[in-house]
Design goal:
- 79% of the residues lie in helices and 0% in strands.
- With 438 residues, it is mainly α.
- It has one domain: Amino acid/polyamine transporter I, CATH 1.20.1740.
- The radius of gyration is 21 Å and the shape is globular.
Length: 438
């Protein structure tokens, strides 16, 4: 019984780390920007074709090496430069936190605004203006970003990560519940038809090579692939935990949450006249418009933005943890100092990112950082990691890790070939086509 409970807790932590702003904020904004239904289909193909084998591969690498990202590469190929792939993963985590912490701060601000009833009697265009004015301000978003990052760092320093698991345990069912309630509200909106057609009906003439590349990046980002977080989780997994089932849980939950958010956001956007391609404010403006109109909107709004913040926080914790573990293990810095250094540097980057949405608009740091990390670095790391696992790990290791309770895994060879050839070739081709034709 105890074994069962442990296994459940491990995948819950993993789900808490995987579900975050990637699903709730970035997914609808990317679908809206890249033409709707066609993006969704391409995204789902990447989740199945690349996401599943890579997630299982990262688990195998972590559990068989008992090490986190850089150490895992060092343990199988000591003295070889492969560990630099791990290093690039840690660098990417830090850079991603540069905008993740900022958007986490936006979620805190919207939690505050909704709880003080600040949206009352505002229509959707006024809501859009509030958002644009807020993110363009030189001080306000930086303040909320700092607050968000300080909370994240305090969790790491105060070692209350066990309590974070408890929060996740309550947060996840509540998040599901509120998403279901909001779906039901969205389904009776006047423009449900237009919203659903946009989201679900693929029109492949609207997707570009850059859109396909963005769908791949989004799949990696949402599933936390390519940043070592899955390798670290893998290293904590018990030997009796079924890696295939764990991956299925994470991928299934992550994809369902993203999908349902789309079911909510697009009907709301079409009903209230918000452009689905309006960019990173989409989830904030659509949902606050909805909360303003529906009965019980105040309570739902406060709950939703609180859950958005908590989902962002549980993810930010795992991202910062991966940077801190690397500083701690590889640079031999004490843990508290590592937390301090990482937080200060990342918050500094986040502040520059924030300014690029206002007074430093011409620098475009926000969009450049997002593009480079999610659409280039993650695929490159995923490609290298995939090849590495398929090439360096013996078939015996893959076989052993995938065999559970004596039940032989029959497809180890296929998995190995997928990781060694199929996934790297697909990733490389999509990257190349995206970069050349974009
Ligand atoms: N998957 C997370 C999200 O959807 C982002 C993330 C990426 C977290 C990589 C950890 C590692 O928000």
């Amino acid at each position: 019984m105890k074994g069962k409970k442990d296994v459940y807790t491990a995948s819950l932590g993993l789900i808490g780390s995987a579900i975050g702003l990637g699903n709730l904020w970035r997914f609808p904004y990317m679908v809206g920007k890249n033409g709707g239904g066609a993006f969704l289909i391409v995204y789902l193909c990447f989740v199945v074709l690349l996401g599943a084998p890579l997630m299982i591969g990262e688990f195998i690498l972590g559990r068989s090496s008992h090490a986190s990202i850089v150490g895992a590469f060092k343990s199988f190929t000591p003295g070889k430069p492969w560990y630099l792939t791990g290093g690039l993963g840690v660098l990417t985590s830090s850079l991603i936190l540069g905008f993740y912490g900022l958007v986490g701060g936006w979620s805190l601000k919207f939690f505050y605004l909704s709880s003080t009833n600040a949206f009352i009697n505002k229509n959707s265009s006024e809501m859009g203006e509030i958002f644009i004015k807020f993110i363009a301000s030189p001080v306000d978003p930086i303040f909320w970003q700092i607050l968000f990052m300080v909370i994240t760092a305090l969790v790491l320093i105060s070692k209350i990560e066990g309590s974070v698991e408890k929060i996740t345990k309550i947060m996840m069912p509540m998040l599901f519940l509120i998403i279901i309630v909001l779906c039901m509200k969205a389904l009776v909106l006047p423009e449900i038809g237009k919203g659903m057609v946009f989201f679900l009906k693929p029109d492949f003439s609207r997707i570009t090579a850059g859109g396909i590349q963005a769908a791949m990046g989004q799949a990696f980002f949402s599933l936390s692939i390519g940043m070592g977080v899955l390798i670290t989780y893998g290293s904590f997994m018990k030997s009796d935990e079924n890696l295939f089932i764990s991956a299925l849980h994470v991928i299934g939950t992550d994809t369902i949450v993203a999908f349902l958010i789309g079911v909510i956001v697009f009907p709301v956007a079409f009903t209230y006249g918000i452009d689905p391609g309006s960019g990173p404010g989409l989830i904030f403006t659509t949902l606050s418009s909805l909360f303003n109109e529906i009965p019980g909107g105040y309570g739902l709004g406060v709950m939703f933005f609180l859950l958005l913040f908590l989902a962002a926080l549980t993810t930010a914790i795992s991202l910062l943890e991966s940077v801190v573990t690397c500083l701690n293990n590889q640079c031999k810095l004490p843990r508290d100092i590592s937390v301090l250094i990482a937080t200060v540097l990342i918050t500094g980057l986040g502040s520059l990112t924030s300014l690029s949405l206002g007074v430093w608009r011409e620098t475009n740091i926000f969009y450049i950082l997002d593009y480079i990390t999610v659409d280039i670095f993650l695929p490159v790391i995923a490609m290298l990691t995939s090849f590495y696992i398929g090439h360096v790990l013996e078939l015996k290791v893959i076989q052993e890790e995938m065999t559970n309770n004596g039940v032989q895994f029959k497809h180890a060879k296929i998995l190995q070939q997928m990781l060694k050839f199929v996934c790297p070739v697909i990733i490389g081709a999509v990257l190349l086509i995206g970069l050349v034709l974009n």
